[in-house]
């Protein structure tokens, strides 16, 4: 269906564009990426891309391909401009990402890998929320808003597909990014109220 291909192309283009303002925000000093979080995002997005491809996803994973490339660029920038401190929580998350790869290789279960990456993503996103709580202006919400829109089109590409594990990442990605944007704005507002009192 041409409509599905168009939705996949739009998802790809918006997903690719989502990284640009984030990278620009890093270069301008508006965003300080957390190194370990972005290394985890690189690993996780790579696992998601390969495992969903092997499960039969096509147009819906184009967004993930853009996030693999974008995450890698942001990770490289984090080596110079990012936050280097790593808590026990950060190290646990990184270890969990490595365990996911090992389990994926041992079981050869793409479904297991996809579900495990959701757990990793929840933890990595929590790390970003905790960073924003400590430094409310350390994260620009615009790239996450753009990524949310890209996920909408990624979800559209699944119309007509049988219900299965390939739905997990696009739907989760949309929900996660919308929640993250909400937290960024909420924590900024709380910070502004506290500083004005």
Essential attributes:
single chain, 197 residues, mainly alpha, 7 helices, 79% helix, globular
How is this structure best summarized?
With about 200 residues, the chain is mostly helical. Helices cover about 80% and strands about 0% of the residues.
What topology emerges from the helices and strands here?
Layout: H1 2-27, H2 35-54, H3 62-81, H4 88-107, H5 110-134, H6 142-156, H7 168-196
Helix pairs in contact: 1-3, 1-6, 2-3, 2-4, 2-5, 4-5, 5-7, 6-7
Describe this structure as you would to a colleague.
This protein has 197 residues and is mostly helical. The chain has one domain. The chain is 79% helix and 0% strand. The chain has seven helices and no strands. The chain has helices spanning 2-27, 35-54, 62-81, 88-107, 110-134, 142-156, 168-196. Helix 6 (142-156) packs antiparallel against helix 7. It is globular and about 55 Å long. The N and C termini lie far apart (57 Å). The model has no long low-confidence stretch (mean pLDDT 87).
Radius of gyration: 17 Å
Query: Which H/E pattern describes the elements?
Result: HHHHHHH
Q: How many independent structural domains? A: 1
Whole-number mean pLDDT: 87
Main sheet overview: none
For the terminal residues, how far apart are their CA atoms?
57 Å
List segments where confidence is low: pLDDT < 50 over at least 5 consecutive residues. Answer: none
Shape: globular
**Count of DSSP strands:** 0
**Helix amount, in percent?**
over 70%
How much of the residues is beta strand, in percent?
Answer: under 5%
Structure annotation, total helices: 7
Q: Give the structural class.
A: mainly alpha
